[in-house]
Design a protein that fits this description.
3 helices; four-stranded antiparallel β-sheet; globular; 142 residues; 17% helix
Length: 142
């Protein structure tokens, strides 16, 4: 079992203009985080959670700025089924997965090939996730 020292926790960047509407959905600084641990990546966004093993991370890139109507709150891209957990329009990290992950619908029927998160320090998180992706050997489930 990983200890607290084995974990890396990154908070979300909250734009004050959107704090109240997001709080109505249960999305607050205390309910949003990206956690890296030996067991995997876990992103909590209010009532939504994405979990995946570290070897499922294919890479990451810093993206943004975004328009508010596309980035604030939980969003599904109709173009590629990508998921966004957004609290700011400034910048974020787009995480790509080898195998799509669940996260938006409660039944887990919809799977997402990528997840964009508006963390406080996108450059550090991007570097860290790319380091994990480079070190991991991914093999598809059979």
């Amino acid at each position: 079992m990983p200890t607290e020292n084995d974990r890396e926790r990154y908070g979300f960047a909250f734009d004050r203009r959107f704090a109240r509407p997001l709080a109505l959905l249960g999305i607050r600084p205390d309910t949003c985080r990206l956690l890296l641990a030996p067991g995997g990546l876990c992103v909590r966004f209010g009532p939504w959670t994405v979990r995946t093993p570290l070897d499922n991370i294919a890479g990451a890139e810093t993206t943004g700025p975004y328009s508010a109507w596309k980035a604030i709150g939980p969003h599904l891209s109709l173009a590629d089924r990508g998921l966004t957990f957004g609290t700011s329009t400034a910048q974020g990290v787009c995480v790509r997965f080898h195998a799509p992950v669940t996260g938006l619908d409660p039944l887990g029927l919809l799977r997402h090939p990528g997840l964009t998160v508006t963390v406080s320090d996108p450059a550090i998180v991007t570097r860290r996730l790319n380091g994990i992706a480079a070190a991991a050997e991914w093999t598809p489930a059979r």
